[in-house]
């Protein structure tokens, strides 16, 4: 099962964990990304995530499908949030279940690594003294 | 011909809009569109890179655009 | 922070996730083990986990300390349950937070791999027609 | 001398008890204790392996036991 969600509502780790449950699964690996309070030495006040919605959902689906092709996994959930997020809030959750745990670890890491390279979502960091689109400039 | 140009992230700030009709020559390649945009808006050259998606799929430099394509400027992504 | 628990009560992924939260963390990786409904071709009815309690807690603590030495992580939680567990129930949760996600993935996998090798806990599988101590015989 | 012998998992089934006083010669090594147990209970030889923990720490074959040590028989673990 593949479950993809792009939403401006709060993400729920419990919801993602429920979605991947399977009596045949022995391993469940969950990655929860949270907003850190600093980038290099600057203090971050909050972040704003913008997405090219329809394409972002397609790319998230492609990543999940690629993971199911490459690894022996049962279910995979990729949820990403958009909009303004405070420190500690969750922009992304990836949850994977498999019969044997190694595949779930590998697939989960593959998904978050690939998501950060290909999914058209952009994050702007707001500091006390300004703001910046992350990764835009060399 | 007319394409539907979308801009996100810093590209939206550079262009000053999110979505607009944009006139290009017939069957223009993505390489040429990128050149045209960089000439018109030199800020694009300062980015780490930018990609182009056509109808919500990434396309490479030799891909040729068609009338009414949904063409999105994709600056370096930073989701997750 | 290291948090170790060996208990005969139900384990809670949410509790473990709360324990590793940190404003400096960007990546949280959670491994949730569940009881599978089959081993090779046999149908499992339920499992019973027995632990050498004081030593199991010491070994779990050693694993967490070793993970903190080897990987650049912030917090680590290892909870293990004992007693009778039904299919789908959770015998083990490992949760790790880190500033950068790769360390959390590596540490989490290191912990579950090592736990299965060194922590004195034993599981008995109950089938329709008998029972067996897992891994006891070649 | 007397040691406190603990048995878990299948070792408990083989010995028929979880905890008992057990007499061994003075300063016996773990290697010799394992031999003695295997002679007395041949089922131990059928296991994949078994380790010995002394006072809740794994110890190797050349470790020598002392009076009143807590000595646990650790058959192949299968937690997680």
UniProtKB/TrEMBL annotation, chains A, C:
UniProt pathway annotation: Cofactor biosynthesis; molybdopterin biosynthesis
Transmembrane regions listed in the UniProt entry: none
Broadest EC class assigned to this enzyme: transferase
A UniProt-annotated Pfam family: MoaE
GO molecular function: molybdopterin synthase activity
Catalytic activity: 2 [molybdopterin-synthase sulfur-carrier protein]-C-terminal-Gly-aminoethanethioate + cyclic pyranopterin phosphate + H2O = molybdopterin + 2 [molybdopterin-synthase sulfur-carrier protein]-C-terminal Gly-Gly + 2 H(+)
A GO BP entry: Mo-molybdopterin cofactor biosynthetic process
Listed EC numbers: 2.8.1.12
Assembly, per entry: Heterotetramer of 2 MoaD subunits and 2 MoaE subunits. Also stable as homodimer. The enzyme changes between these two forms during catalysis.
Record family assignment: Belongs to the MoaE family.
The protein's name: Molybdopterin synthase catalytic subunit
Organism: Portibacter lacus
Automatic annotation (TrEMBL), chains B, D:
GO MF terms, alphabetically ordered: nucleotide binding
GO CC term (a single one): molybdopterin adenylyltransferase complex
Record InterPro entries: Beta-grasp_dom_sf, MOCS2A, Mopterin_synth/thiamin_S_b, ThiS/MoaD-like
GO BP annotations listed: Mo-molybdopterin cofactor biosynthetic process
Keywords, comma-separated and alphabetical: Nucleotide-binding
Gene3D superfamilies registered for this protein in UniProt: 3.10.20.30
Protein family (similarity comment): Belongs to the MoaD family.
PANTHER family xrefs: MOLYBDOPTERIN SYNTHASE SULFUR CARRIER SUBUNIT (PTHR33359)
Protein name, per record: Molybdopterin synthase sulfur carrier subunit
Originating species: Portibacter lacus
The encoding gene: moaD
């Amino acid at each position: 099962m593949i479950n993809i969600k792009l939403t401006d509502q709060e993400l729920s780790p419990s919801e993602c964990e429920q979605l991947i449950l399977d009596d045949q699964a022995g391993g469940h690996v969950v990655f929860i990304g949270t907003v850190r309070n600093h980038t290099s030495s600057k203090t971050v006040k909050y972040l704003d995530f913008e997405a090219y919605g329809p394409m972002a959902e397609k790319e998230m689906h492609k990543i999940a499908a690629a993971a199911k092709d490459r690894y022996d996994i049962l279910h995979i959930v990729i949820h990403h949030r958009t909009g303004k997020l405070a420190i500690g809030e969750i922009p992304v959750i990836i949850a994977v279940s498999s019969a044997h745990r190694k595949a779930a670890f590998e697939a989960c890491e593959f998904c978050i690594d690939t998501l950060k390279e290909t999914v058209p979502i952009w994050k702007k960091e707001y500091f006390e003294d300004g703001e910046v689109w992350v990764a835009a400039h060399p | 011909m007319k394409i539907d140009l979308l801009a996100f992230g810093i590209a939206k700030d550079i262009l000053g809009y999110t979505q607009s009709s944009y006139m290009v020559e017939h069957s223009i390649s993505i390489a040429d569109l990128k050149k045209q945009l960089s000439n018109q808006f030199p800020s694009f050259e300062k980015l780490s890179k930018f990609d182009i998606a056509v109808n919500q799929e990434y396309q490479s430099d030799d891909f040729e655009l068609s009338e009414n394509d949904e063409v999105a400027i994709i600056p370096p992504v930073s989701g997750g």
